[in-house]
Amino acid sequence: METENYNVIGVMSGTSLDGIDLAHIQFRVESQEWAFEIIESETISYSSEWLTSLKMAVDFSINELDDLNQKYTELLATTISNFIKKYNIENIDAVCSHGHTILHQPQKGFTLQIGNLPEISALIHQTVVCDFRVQDVQLGGQGAPLVPIGDKILFPEYDYCMNLGGFSNISFEENGERIAFDISPVNTVLNFYANELGLAYDDKGQKTSTGSINENLLNELNDLDFYQKKHPKSLGFEFVKEVVLPIIDTYKISTTDKLRTFTEHVAFQIASALPTKKGNLFITGGGAYNDFLIERIQSYLPEIKIIIPSNKILEFKEALIFALLGVLKLRGEVNVLRSVTGAQKDHSSGVIFTV
Q1: With helix as H, strand as E and coil as C, how does 138-191 read?
Q2: Is the pLDDT of residue 236 over 90?
Q3: Which of 9, 10, 21, 50 has a Cα-to-Cα distance from 313 of 20 to 30 A?
Q4: How many CA atoms, within 13 angstroms, populate the side-chain half-sphere of residue 169?
Q5: Which pTM does this prediction carry?
């Protein structure tokens, strides 16, 4: 029986702006059974200048976006090259890179991830598989979330797989199909208000836990139209900037009360998203370190067993799964599911750039 091995690097930058996640991964495939090992992994933080640019980019002109895309591609190339050199990684089959989402408006047939320009391959002297969302949007899909096929292939033992990052998203099996959707903003909002307190983020939710819930704000957030929509559905930073933050800021309450109320909102929406409130829930992403948020989720789901994996999987699951999407693209196999995104068909998404 033939066994196939792949030696790849997965690269991801999420909307929470924690930095660029890189993971050196080895996949082993035998009879369509997949196994993986994360060999080396690292998150490279953004400079303050880059943080400012990425936060402001949603309002950039086309020319400014083109310039940002060029510079970000160069930043990504340098970061990837340094990672390869630092860990002496050889015989790489491909670098599989998500890029960084700036605009995501699938309802208008548009999504933009910077850092996916063709020259990235020449800059790092490697085959690059990237730009995984555009084709799905062209096929009428949401272009997100893309992680669920990885949940299905790599983590089939869990009833629910959820990522708590800039946004929360979840995937699970329903009527023989993988279903997935974005639930709500998480760290895009929590970090915004932590910044107001002079913090990069609220460590373990300690500040949040001292705040009080504003019931009127909580109800207004829970009544937003997005939460009444059926899947497939996805969120972008525009939703946070244009809808969520303006609502929260109409309330003249303390920043800790805003954090506390929004955390309750996140926990409530996550519990509401699960069709059955039993089984196990596998949680990854930076939000899994927010002990107070996890406590609030558990309080709404007393019969659910919450499982938080090792730090390596917790922090680098998305880099791992974009590495998988790249390998599936190289194999010419489906890496995006119509049941998840709402596209016209299952398909093999992404582009391959060779040196």
Answers
A1: HCCCCCCCCCHHHHHHHCCCCCEEEEECCEEEEEEEECCEEEEEEEEECHHHHH
A2: no
A3: 50
A4: 25
A5: 0.90
